[in-house]
Write a structure and sequence with these properties.
By secondary structure, the chain is mostly helical. It has one domain. It is built from five helices and no strands. α1 packs antiparallel against α2 and α3 packs antiparallel against α5. It is elongated.
Length: about 150
């Protein structure tokens, strides 16, 4: 049932998941009023570098995923499904804790040499969302790909 969707639809789903991930990382930077005045220049410089990295890196990553889907012995929808889950779970995992992560990032910019550490709530959210995505996608692929024993 899961992989009865045509191959072309899985390519579109993977493209939509990629767009959602790019929007999360590039289009939703910290608001100017959230930034301390002392780190504004450093944030803008890092954002410009990161934006170009995302604009150039995401197409390369997508091309690698697409080529992997074409050359792997598994059917392309399976690889594209796993890619879509990975790309789609990132916005879900990062958007709710984005402000907390930016506060830690700004603190690290103000005191160079300090490490960025997640607080417990952010870490729990991040690990639970990404862990659930991994387990659910693995279970979905296994249930759709492999039949019960003895059949």
């Amino acid at each position: 049932m899961l992989f009865s969707v045509p191959d072309q639809a899985w390519w579109w789903i993977a493209a939509a998941a990629t767009v959602a991930a790019v929007i999360t990382f590039v289009v939703l930077p910290p608001e100017p009023d959230e930034m301390p005045e002392a780190v504004r220049a450093a944030v803008e410089r890092n954002r410009r570098i990161g934006k170009w990295g995302a604009y150039l890196g995401v197409p390369v990553f997508c091309a690698i995923a697409g080529l992997t889907a074409l050359i792997r012995p598994e059917p392309a929808p399976v690889v594209l499904f796993l890619y879509s889950v990975a790309a789609g779970s990132m916005p879900i995992a990062l958007l709710p804790i984005r402000r907390r992560m930016y506060r830690h990032y700004f603190a690290q910019l103000q005191t160079p040499g300090s490490k960025i550490a997640l607080d417990r709530l952010s870490a729990t959210w991040l690990y639970s969302v990404l862990g659930t995505a991994v387990l659910a996608s693995t279970a979905a692929v296994m249930s759709a790909t492999y039949g019960p024993r003895g059949l």
